[in-house]
Each structure stands twice: as structure tokens, then as C-alpha cells.
Design goal:
alpha+beta; metal ion binding; iron; fatty acid biosynthesis; peroxidase; heme
Length: 961
């Protein structure tokens, strides 16, 4: 095990002495991370066990074979319970129902006559909302001193089901992992515990082998002792693989099975150590004190009712941390058990997943990644032949996964006791929740509304540089649009689409206007009106973001929560909570979304009622209207195919279909349109459908990344060792406001005649809906389809976004974007690109060769290290065909796969049983073009024949006068 640094934490007073716990790695957080890795190793053990045994399902990591499981046992505390042990539910004469599971200890379901330890698990149901799990084994000490030994032993013994393999595990694998002395001591302990033949589990004694807190009494170990008057058992069978089960069944048919629950009090760290699971608490040092009687009543264990009870008990996840603070588990083995038991039980129940990496991939991945790094110093990935470039991108994605996923969740360290988690709502297994929770059933809050943004790079929080250089100067010199620069390979629908998506993904919460603001000093002589009717001021002011702080933390926040869910779940259409979602549906709980003659219904302020209503403009209205109609079309198709499906099921199934269709469109249509190269088209289609079937690509991926041999929807969920979230850097690279023009020509799709020319201000906010209803969805789509958006580059930020009203304040969005990045700890551009495995810039000339831009950069920034990330990304020369920079693209290839692969509804639960066969077929057959044509068939002649709907459309020629 890693060196155990002693950090002593006084946590109570035992009658005889002070006592403490010591943390592996020196502190609780370091220990938590180590134990999380051990938990993942244990999940791999489960998979190996499943493979070697040929089992159909993943079994428990330990205690796999049930001998007895009952729900009707009783625990009765003694009337003469010692006064210092009267703690919490442990009171004289108190009686509680108990669930009991007796089992063999191995993680393999082997015959009862095979050498093995035996285990007992109790769940004491002390009252409404209070339960206590006690776990014991029929040997007084553990073969493992600490957590790593426990897992290394399990790894070494997987598949050791024959004498040669067992000898290899004992004398080669285990000593190599832990050393000869530790391996020998474990072998001795285990041999002593398993060599004795067991006649009946009713006659066995079980020990906790690790300590728990018993209120102010301090640490205790507990044990079960069989009743002294228990009937004897016959000799152990050498042929019946289930003789222990049969013996208990026969015994319970005629009599109760009774045990005494006993405890031993802590004495001192030498005689009764807390952190060493292999040390015995000898009875002469710590006398055994009976405290309660466990009674398993006489019963027939072969009835249908008893078998059903056994199945329910087998589904339970026993964990010593299912308790209260007064009975908290102690010691590193117990702290490791919390992570390990939660992970292994979630794995067994299908809540959490593990995808083993083939050994060849592990071995070959290192030289392959190193080889591509060396090659890319001479030839960048985008200049390689397509097949080699595809393998280069995969190697880069692997490197990014290893180095650029940073966990920002506030972990529980040290662990805390908790009550038994409630069972998962059956509906949440097959439906997206309203708030993004329960996507990962093993961590229900992951990715839900309010969870923290992650990081791809270490935060650089420099308050002294918040205003250096002045962001208003940066904006006016480098961002402001002087002349519109078009992106000629796209249409404006591409601009509308990405804002439509960003509203699903990210939303930083802001303080109410006027309560807590950011103040940006203005250059000399400049004034700004911060509210529509307010005075001119010498500062630019806008609402500050609300950060996430730990209790009592007074530091400035650098961690922020997402007020949208992190999942690709269509929340911009459906809303982020149940109240909003239901308000958007037709009356009386109908499945369809409310529409007013095909358009979104308007709210009191003139902005439509939909899932996300901020920053409203015509582009968003087009997208929201289109996909609200598409939702209703899916509902109607489902109702026709499955007439017995309820409206609620229709709604949720349609939401699944629409969300997946949106994810597919973004993956295989929008992204290849804005990154218009054959290589990226292949790469993004590979993400969804799987890689090309040519031998070089297939062989290369088989050798060093076998998981990429299928499209992501055919894989298991994989968070790549970091809880899923979108990241602050992801937000930074999706600042694509230059895509939006300042003027829009609205045209008639039949004649090509111009109907009107409108400014961005004219088509924003409450004015939007009057325009789309007057123009119609068909002409609005056509007008956006034939016109170009702006290029994502410097000197092209929309003027209409540099002074506009939002929520009662007047802001310059370009300044807000710069300030937000600085205050959220986004590294400046040079550090940003270096963190994404690109060479650092030494001179301004390495960023751009355009003389005017170069001169302005040098005027604004003192050194290349000062350049703001957004400015650097806009200034960088992108690869040929790319609509944005290679630096931004690197984060994209990391997060694009992650958004799909972490989501169980786009991986393991992307299947007909959840989506229905019709739903799966709808996603497979449809894309942006078919969605448009379903609701606007008049546009068939305008849409591109061989390109996506985000490419420029054919314009209708105006008739000659």
C-alpha cells in the first residue's frame, strides 16, 4: 500500500484511552481518491470473475453464494444492557425486525464443501428511516491488514479454481503484488480460517474484524455467537454442493436459530488497534459482552414466499456505512468498504459500469501516443492522410482523457454514515428525469441541475489580472465588428443551432440585477449606461455569477453550478423541472407540447413559453418551434403504433427520441458542417456509427483502442474515472457569437423576393414572435438557410450584442465573455493551448500573420502570455475547412465523445425496450433535413442535395421585372 502517513484525528474518548484514526495518504481527501481507485479495481475483479466462471450476471465481489436469506428475524436487546452501551437504538428490552443473509465469503459461487470463509450480514430496521447494517465473517481477523491488501488479494485469486492456478496466485501473483511477508501472513490467516469443516452456519461464530463507534463509549468490535443450546449438526457433506443450505432449511423447519450479539470495548491502540484488520482483539484484553439476541424464527424456507424473500434480500446492498453517526464504522478497511461496496453493488445491480481495457491496448497505447506526439511536431494531425489522421485523433483523445478531466465535485472525505438509499423509482430507469438526476443510477445527482462545472485545465484564479488589460479595450480593439466577415460554407441556421444547443447544456446562475455585480473600469473619457433608463457611469456593471462555496468558506468562488442539466436531454425544449415541463404540455396531461396554430404560445412578456427563454431571437424561435412540432409528430406516430401507451409514457418516450435525434444531428451534421473536412466527417460519423470498415483503421483501433471499434451508442457508459460534467473550458470554446450577423434579409421562398431587412435588435426579445408569425416558419427557415453567418474570428463580434438589454441591465456581451473567463479561472490563451498539448507561443507573430491584427495585439497586450483565451482562439489560424481553431477543437474531441459515452440513454439504454422500436427507427432514419421537410415540405427544392441542412441552401431566383 502507499506509505501510510500518520494524520491523527481525535474523534472521541474511550473509557480507557484516547483513540484516533489514521488516513492512508496522509489526509482524508488523498485517502478518498486512493479508495475510489481500489473500488474500480474491485469492479474489474467482478468482471474477471464473471468471465472465468461463465456466469450470466455480475456477482457480488465477495459473499457471492447465499446460504440463507430471510426478512423476518428479530433482534432483542438485553434488559441488563450495561449503561455505557445504551446508545441510540441500543436500549434495554428494545426489539427490532432484522433482515439476515448468511453466505459463503468467496466472490465465486463454489460448492459448500470447498475451503471458504462464511459471512453474516444483518440489517437492523430500527425505525422509520433508520437502519443499521452489521457485516461479519466466521474468523476473528481479516487476512488483509488494510484496503489495498484486500483488493490485491481478490485480483490475484480471480480464476484460481484449480490447484496449479491457485499455487500460481499464492506463490507468484500475490507476492509480486504485496511482497513475500505480507503474502505469507495472508496465506496463514486464510488457511486458518478455511481449513475447518463447517457443519452448520447456525453453529458458527462470526466476528466484525473491524471496529465501529458505539456512541460515547468509543470503538467496539462486535460478533455473533450461536446459542449454547443449539441442536448439533451432521458431519459436513463431501458431495452435496449445497449441504449448508439444506442443513439450515431442515433446522428451521423444526426450531428457531438463535445467536447472541456481543461487543468488545476498545482498550488501547496496541491491544485493540483500529486501523489493522489482521490484528485480533483478544478476549483477555477486551472481554466479550452480550448485548442482544438475534432470533431467526422457525419457518419453511422452500415456499414460494420464502424464495421471493430470498430474491429481495439478494438484491440488497449491505454496507457498514448504512447506519447513523453514533455507530459510524472506523478504520481504513471500513472506509475503503464504503467506496468498494457502493461500487461493486452498483456494478452488480446494473447502476454502474466498467469497461476493461485490453492488455494489448494498455501496452501499445504508450508508444502509439508517443509516436503521434513526435510526428505532430513535424506534421499536424490535420495534414496527415485521412486513415492515419483518424488514428492520430484517437490517440490525441486518449491523451486528453488521461490529462484533461479534472474532478471538481466536493467528495465526502472522510466518509459519513448514511441511511439505506431508497430504491430507484422504476420510472427513472426508463425515462429521463426532469432535472437531469438519475442518469447515472449509482450517483443520482451526477450531471443534474445545480451540479458543479468540471475542469479540463487547472484553474488560474488571478484577481490582480481581472482588469489587465482592460476588457473594454480588448473588445473595442480586437473584437468589435467593423465589416461583416461571412462564413461562406455555412448558413445562419448553424448559428441558431449552436445557441439552441448551448441553452440545453450550460447556464451559470447570476445574482439578481442590482444585488451583486461585477464592475469593469472604463477607459478614460468613456461612459456607460448600465440600465435602460439609468445614468451614464464610469464603470460597466453586470450581474455576478453565483459560486459554490463550502460551509464557512469566505474565499471568492472559483467553482460554479450549472442551472441546466449537464446531459444532452433537450432541456431547452422541455424545461429543467417538473413544474415547467408539465406547463409546456397540452391540457389534461396530454403528451403533446402546447402550440398556438403551429407556433409557440407567448408568455406575458411576449417571449414564448418554452424550456429556456433567455436571449431570445428569431434563430431560437425557429429551432424551438421546429422541435416542438417534431415532438408532437413523434407523439402522434407512437400513439398510432402503440395505442395502449399512456399519455405520460408517450411524452417521455418522445422526449427520449427528440433528445437523441438532436444529439445525432449535432454529432453527424452540425459539427462536420462547421469543421468541413473529410477526416472530421469520418471521425464524427465514427462517434455515432462506428469507424470505417477499412483494414488499417480497424487494425489500428483493435491494437490500441478497441473501445473505439463501435459507435458510442453501442458501448457501456464510461466516465473515464471522473464524474461526468460539462466544464468551464467547454463553455469558453463555445463562445461563438461572431456567427450571428447584425442584419437579416427576410425573403419569400417561392419567389426569392425580399420581404424586409431587419437588424439583430429588430428580431430579439418580445419582438421575435410577431416576426415569425408574420413571416411564417417556412420563409424564416428559407431566409436563414440562404444567408451566411459570420466567421468565428477577430473583428467580427456582432455590434447588436455589444449594447443590448438583458434582464434589466444593458451589457456589452463581448466584455462579459472576457470577464467571465478571467473570473472563472480559465487560463490565458498560451497556458490554455499548452494545457491541451500544443506548443507555447514565443512571439505574437506565431499566432497571426495579419499585419493589422498583429499590431493591435501588440498594442493591447504586453506579452503573448497575456492574450485572453477567447482572443487567442479567434486569432488562431484554423486548419483548412475548419470554422474554429485547432485549440478549441482539441477540447471538442474530448467532450463530444464524453457527452455521448457518459449518458446511459445514449449507450446501454439506447435500445428498443426503452425508446420503442419505432423510436429507434425514427432516430436512425431522420436528420435535420427530414425534420425540416416534415414540417415545411415546401422547402424540398431549396435544401442542399448532397450536404447537410447547415450548408448554404439554393436561393430561389427572383423573376425579372
Amino acid at each position: 500500500m502507499r506509505k501510510v502517513e500518520k494524520q491523527e484525528r481525535h474523534v472521541g474518548m474511550a473509557p480507557a484511552a484516547m483513540w484516533h484514526e489514521r488516513y492512508v495518504g496522509g489526509n482524508p481527501e488523498a485517502e478518498r481518491q486512493i479508495f475510489e481507485k481500489l473500488a474500480q479495481d474491485l469492479m474489474l475483479v467482478q468482471l474477471k470473475t464473471k468471465k472465468t466462471t461463465g456466469a450470466a450476471d455480475i456477482a457480488r465481489a465477495f459473499q457471492a453464494k447465499t446460504i440463507l436469506a430471510v426478512e423476518n428475524a428479530r433482534l432483542t436487546f438485553r434488559d441488563d444492557l450495561p449503561g455505557d452501551l445504551r446508545v441510540g437504538f441500543a436500549q434495554p428490552g428494545a426489539e427490532y425486525p432484522v433482515i439476515v443473509r448468511l453466505s459463503n465469503a468467496s466472490g465465486v459461487r463454489q460448492p459448500d464443501f470447498a475451503p471458504d470463509l462464511r459471512s453474516a450480514a444483518l440489517r437492523i430496521q430500527a425505525g422509520a428511516g433508520e437502519a443499521h447494517d452489521l457485516l461479519m465473517t466466521n474468523f476473528p481477523v481479516s487476512h488483509a491488514r488494510h484496503a489495498r491488501e484486500l483488493v490485491m488479494f481478490a485480483q490475484a485469486m480471480v480464476g484460481a479454481n484449480s490447484p496449479p492456478r491457485k499455487a500460481f496466485a499464492w506463490f507468484i501473483k500475490l507476492p509480486m503484488a504485496l511482497g513475500w511477508s505480507s503474502a505469507a501472513r495472508m496465506r496463514r490467516n486464510l488457511k486458518a480460517g478455511t481449513r475447518r469443516a463447517v457443519r452448520s452456519l447456525a453453529l458458527e461464530r462470526f466476528w466484525s474484524r473491524s471496529a465501529i463507534l458505539w456512541g460515547e463509549t468509543g470503538p467496539v468490535r462486535y460478533q455473533l455467537r450461536p446459542a449454547t443450546n443449539a441442536p448439533p449438526a451432521p458431519s459436513p457433506s463431501r458431495t452435496d454442493p449445497d449441504y449448508l443450505r439444506r442443513e439450515l432449511s431442515r433446522r428451521l423447519a423444526t426450531t428457531d436459530v438463535v445467536f447472541q450479539l456481543c461487543v468488545q470495548r476498545y482498550v488501547d491502540s496496541t491491544r485493540t488497534p483500529i486501523e489493522d484488520g489482521a490484528a485480533d482483539w483478544r478476549e483477555e484484553d477486551a472481554p466479550v459482552i452480550p448485548v442482544a439476541t438475534l432470533t431467526i424464527p422457525r419457518q419453511d424456507t422452500d415456499t414460494a414466499e420464502a424464495r421471493a424473500a430470498e430474491r429481495r434480500v439478494d438484491e440488497l446492498a449491505f454496507n457498514p456505512w448504512n447506519t447513523t453517526d453514533e455507530f459510524r464504522p472506523l478504520g481504513n478497511l471500513n472506509r475503503a468498504r464504503k467506496a468498494a461496496y457502493e461500487a461493486s453493488s452498483a456494478h452488480r445491480l446494473g447502476y454502474r459500469f466498467m469497461t476493461p481495457v485490453p492488455r494489448r491496448n494498455t501496452v501499445l497505447g504508450v508508444p502509439v501516443r508517443a509516436g503521434f506526439r513526435s510526428l505532430n511536431r513535424v506534421v499536424p494531425w490535420h495534414r496527415l492522410p485521412s486513415r492515419l489522421g483518424l488514428l492520430n485523433l484517437d490517440a490525441l483523445r486518449q491523451a486528453l482523457r488521461r490529462a484533461n478531466l479534472i474532478d471538481t465535485e466536493i467528495g465526502q472525505a472522510p466518509p459519513k454514515a448514511h441511511q439505506v438509499p431508497p430504491p430507484i423509482d422504476e420510472q427513472l430507469r426508463i425515462r429521463r428525469s426532469y432535472d437531469g438526476s438519475h442518469n447515472d443510477l449509482s450517483a443520482p445527482a451526477m450531471g443534474g441541475i445545480g451540479s458543479a462545472f468540471g475542469r479540463n485545465l487547472a484553474s488560474v484564479y488571478r484577481p490582480d489580472l481581472f482588469d489587465t488589460p482592460n476588457p473594454v479595450v480588448v473588445s473595442s480593439e480586437l473584437l468589435r465588428r467593423d465589416t461583416f466577415i461571412p462564413a461562406r460554407s455555412l448558413n445562419i441556421l448553424a448559428a441558431a443551432w449552436i445557441q439552441f444547443q448551448v441553452h440545453d447544456w450550460v447556464d451559470h446562475k447570476r445574482y439578481p440585477v442590482g444585488t451583486k455585480s461585477v464592475e469593469v473600469p472604463l477607459p478614460p473619457g468613456m461612459r456607460w449606461r448600465n440600465t435602460p433608463e439609468g445614468p451614464l457611469e464610469e464603470v460597466m456593471r453586470f450581474a455576478e455569477n453565483e459560486g459554490i462555496l463550502s460551509a464557512g468558506d469566505t474565499r471568492p468562488p472559483i467553482l460554479f453550478g450549472n442551472m441546466a442539466s449537464h446531459w444532452w436531454d433537450g432541456s431547452e425544449v422541455y424545461g429543467g423541472d417538473e413544474t415547467v415541463a408539465k406547463s409546456l404540455r397540452e391540457p389534461d396531461g396530454a403528451a403533446e407540447l402546447r402550440l398556438d396554430r403551429g407556433h409557440l404560445p407567448s408568455g406575458p412578456d411576449g417571449t414564448p413559453i418554452t424550456g429556456f427563454r433567455e436571449n431570445w431571437w428569431l434563430g431560437l424561435s425557429i429551432m424551438h418551434t421546429l422541435f416542438a412540432r417534431e415532438h408532437n409528430a413523434v407523439c402522434q406516430a407512437l400513439r398510432g403504433e402503440y395505442p395502449n401507451m399512456s399519455d405520460d409514457s408517450l411524452y417521455h418516450t418522445a422526449r427520449l427520441v427528440i433528445s437523441a435525434l438532436i444529439a445525432k444531428i449535432h454529432t453527424v451534421e452540425w459539427t462536420p458542417a462547421i469543421l468541413a473536412t473529410d477526416l472530421i466527417d469520418t471521425a464524427l460519423n465514427s462517434n455515432w456509427y462506428g469507424p470505417p470498415k477499412n483494414w488499417l483503421t480497424q487494425l489500428g483501433l483493435w491494437l490500441y483502442d478497441a473501445h473505439a471499434l463501435t459507435g458510442v451508442p453501442k458501448t457501456l457508459p464510461d466516465h473515464h474515472n471522473v464524474p461526468y460534467s460539462l466544464t468551464e473550458e467547454f463553455v469558453a470554446i463555445y463562445r461563438m457569437h461572431p456567427l450571428i450577423p447584425d442584419e437579416f434579409e427576410i425573403a419569400d421562398h417561392t419567389s426569392g423576393r425580399r420581404l424586409e431587412t431587419l437588424s439583430l435588435t429588430d428580431i430579439r426579445g418580445a419582438a421575435t414572435e410577431a416576426i415569425i408569425r408574420r413571416t411564417g416558419l417556412v420563409n424564416s427557415l428559407y431566409s436563414f438557410g440562404i444567408a451566411h453567418p459570420g466567421a468565428i474570428t477577430l473583428h467580427n463580434f456582432p455590434r447588436g450584442l455589444q449594447e443590448f438589454e438583458r434582464g434589466g441591465e444593458v451589457i456589452d456581451l463581448s466584455v462579459v465573455d472576457l470577464v467571465r473567463d478571467r473570473r472563472r479561472g480559465i487560463p490565458r490563451y498560451n497556458d490554455f493551448r499548452a494545457g491541451l498539448h500544443k506548443p507555447r507561443l514565443r512571439r505574437f507573430e506565431e499566432l497571426t500573420s495579419r499585419p493589422e491584427t498583429l499590431a493591435r495585439l501588440k498594442d493591447v497586450y504586453r506579452t503573448v502570455d497575456e492574450i485572453d483565451t477567447m482572443v487567442g482562439l479567434f486569432a488562431e489560424n484554423p486548419p483548412k475547412g475548419f470554422g474554429f481553431s485547432d485549440t478549441a477543437f482539441r477540447l471538442f474531441i474530448l467532450m463530444a465523445s464524453r457527452r455521448l459515452q457518459s449518458d446511459r440513454f445514449l449507450t446501454v439504454d439506447f435500445r428498443p425496450e426503452i425508446y420503442t422500436p419505432l423510436g429507434m427507427d425514427w432516430i436512425e432514419r431522420n436528420g435535420m433535413t427530414s425534420v425540416i421537410l416534415r414540417h415545411c415540405p415546401e422547402l424540398a427544392g431549396s435544401l442542399p442535395r448532397t450536404a447537410s441542412a447547415f450548408a448554404p441552401w439554393r436561393a430561389t431566383l427572383c423573376p425579372q421585372p
